[in-house]
Amino acid sequence: MDKTSVKKYFGLIINPIFIIGLAVIARLVPHVPNFTPIAAMALFGGAYLNRRYAALVPLAAMLASDIFIGFYSPIVMFSVYGSFILTGAIGLWLKKRKSPANVVFAAVGASILFFLITNFAVWVGGWYPRNLAGLVEAYTMAVPFFRNTLLGNLFYTTVFFGGYELVLRLVKKPALVAV
After folding, report:
1. Is 172 within the bounds of a domain?
2. Most distant CA pair in the chain: distance in Å?
């Protein structure tokens, strides 16, 4: 089986609907706050799936799970969804630059991006005073969540990218013939 056949085969197994389902389940079961696979899924989607799925898959997973979890402040929701679209764009950048270092860099970058965008939106949304002290407080109060976001992104990115590449390598190896 050549690499193209393997990718086509896994494209059938690891399809967007399957990935969305796993992400929805991961958001619905009890978990550490912000330790979810959504950003890793956006990076993976951008790097491996058809281009249109880079944004569609994480947004569909978020929307489907938000139906059960509940919707929240429109400005914050827009910032969360927007940060995942940008994370998908980082995944598109990874498509031709996949290396362990670049994948880690992308996961860390996606975490920082999410932290900066969403907490700015929380501040703009009026959850903190709209002055410099309020902005600093919004970011300061979010630091524990950033830690969880970073750890979750690194964990799930390792699982998605590492698992997929491992399977590709295992499938490419010639079968051992029993003598």
Report:
1. no
2. 76
Residue 68 included in any domain? yes
Q: How far is CA 23 from the centre of its chain?
A: 9
Q: pLDDT digit of tens for each residue in the chain (179 aa)?
A: 555 665 565 555 455 567 667 777 777 778 788 898 889 988 988 888 878 777 787 788 888 888 888 788 889 999 999 999 999 999 999 999 999 999 999 999 999 999 999 999 999 999 999 999 999 999 999 999 999 999 999 999 998 888 888 877 777 765 554 54
The C-alpha atoms of residue 111 and residue 17 are separated, in whole angstroms, by: 24
Within 13 A of 96's CA, how many CA atoms are on the CB side?
A: 2
Output the domain CATH number for residue 161.
1.10.1760
The whole domain housing 45 covers: 3-167
In a domain, 116, yes or no: yes
The reply to whether 173 falls in a domain is: no
Q: How many domains does the chain have?
A: 1
**Residues 65 and 24 sit within 8 Å (Cβ to Cβ):** yes
pTM: 0.81
> What is the identity of the amino acid at 24?
V
Residue 178 to residue 97: CA distance in whole angstroms: 39
Euclidean distance between CA atoms 57 and 43, whole angstroms: 11
Cβ neighbour number for residue 100 with a 10 Å cutoff:
11
| Residue 141 phi, psi dihedral angles, 5° rounding | -65, -20
